[in-house]
C-alpha cells in the first residue's frame, strides 16, 4: 500500500502542476499541498497494525525515501466522510454477495454501488465527478482470485469446443465482450427500475441517454421513458 500510494501521489502531483500551469523544470520553487496517507481497513479479520512504511519494502535499510501510511480501522470513525466511504465499500460487498463473484457480476456490483451512493447522497459529489476513476480503481483492487477459477473453467470449455489456440482466444474475447454488454444492460434495467434518472445511469454505465432509452425499450417495452 505505501508503494501504491506513492504512485497515486505522483500522479496527483502531475495533475496539480498541469492545472497550475507549472513545470518540474522551472527555476522557481514549486509549492505543493501537504499530503497525509491513510488506508481504511474494512476487513473482518483482526488486524492491529497502526501504520505501514515504504522503507519496510526496501531490500536494504539505507534509503532516503519514506512514506508513512496510517491505518484506520472501521470502528475508528463514525458519522464522517470515512464512514461514508465504508458504507460505499460495504455496498459493493453486499452486491457481490447478492449477484455473485464472477467478473461481470463484480463489475455490476461496483457500478450499482456507485449509483446507490450517488442517489442517496453518500460521497455523491466525489463519485459524480470521478466515478470512472473510482470504478477502475475498485476493479483493480478486487483480487483476481475472486473470478480466476471461473475464467479457468471458461477457458477449458472453449478449448474443448474450438480445439485450436486461436479459436480459444477469439472465443474468450467475444464471450467477455458479450458478457460485459449484457452486464451493462442488466445494470441499466435494475437502476431504472429503482428510480435512477437517465443522467445518473449514463454517468455510471458510460452509455448515452439515447443508448439507455434503447436498452430500456428493448428489455422493458411496457415501461415509459
Description:
There is one protein chain. Helix 2 crosses helix 3, helix 3 packs parallel to helix 6 and helix 5 crosses helix 6. This protein has two domains: 72 residues, no CATH class; 99 residues, no CATH class. The protein has 225 residues and is mainly α. The N and C termini lie far apart (45 Å). It contains eight helices and three strands. A three-stranded mixed sheet has the order 1-3-2, with no helix packed on it.
User: What fraction of residues sit in β-strands?
Assistant: 5-15%
Secondary-structure element order, N to C: HEEEHHHHHHH
Unreliable sequence segments: 221-225
As a whole number of angstroms, the C-alpha radius of gyration is: 22 Å
Q: Using the alpha-carbon principal axes, give the shape.
A: globular
Helix content: 55-70%
Q: Give the number of helices.
A: 8
- Spatial strand arrangement across the major sheet: 1-3-2
Q: What's the structural domain tally?
A: 2
Sheet having the most strands: 3 strands, mixed
What's the number of extended β-strand segments?
Answer: 3
Distance between the termini: 45 Å
- The quaternary state of the protein chains shown equals single chain
- Mean pLDDT over the full residue set: 77
Keywords:
disordered C terminus; three-stranded mixed beta sheet; 2 domains; globular; mainly alpha; 225 residues; 8 helices; 6% strand
Amino acid at each position: 500500500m505505501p508503494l501504491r500510494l506513492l504512485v497515486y501521489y505522483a500522479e496527483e502531483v502531475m495533475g496539480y502542476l498541469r492545472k497550475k500551469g507549472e513545470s518540474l523544470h522551472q527555476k522557481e520553487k514549486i509549492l505543493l499541498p501537504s499530503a497525509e496517507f491513510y488506508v481504511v481497513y474494512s476487513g473482518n479479520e483482526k488486524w492491529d497494525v497502526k501504520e505501514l512504511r515504504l522503507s519496510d519494502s526496501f531490500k536494504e535499510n539505507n534509503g532516503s525515501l519514506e512514506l508513512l501510511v496510517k491505518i484506520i480501522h472501521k470502528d475508528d470513525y463514525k458519522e464522517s466522510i470515512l464512514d461514508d466511504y465504508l458504507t460505499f465499500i460495504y455496498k459493493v460487498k453486499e452486491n457481490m454477495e447478492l449477484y455473485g463473484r464472477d467478473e461481470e457480476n463484480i463489475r455490476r456490483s461496483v457500478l450499482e454501488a456507485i449509483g446507490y451512493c450517488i442517489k442517496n447522497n453518500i460521497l455523491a459529489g466525489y463519485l459524480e465527478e470521478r466515478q470512472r476513476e473510482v470504478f477502475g480503481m475498485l476493479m483493480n483492487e478486487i483480487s483476481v482470485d475472486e473470478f480466476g477459477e471461473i475464467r479457468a473453467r471458461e477457458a477449458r470449455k472453449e478449448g474443448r469446443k474450438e480445439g485450436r489456440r486461436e479459436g480459444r482466444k477469439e472465443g474468450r474475447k467475444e464471450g467477455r465482450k458479450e458478457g460485459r454488454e449484457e452486464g451493462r444492460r442488466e445494470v441499466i434495467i435494475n437502476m431504472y427500475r429503482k428510480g435512477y434518472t437517465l443522467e445518473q445511469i449514463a454517468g455510471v454505465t458510460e452509455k448515452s441517454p439515447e443508448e439507455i432509452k434503447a436498452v430500456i425499450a428493448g428489455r422493458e417495452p411496457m415501461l415509459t421513458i
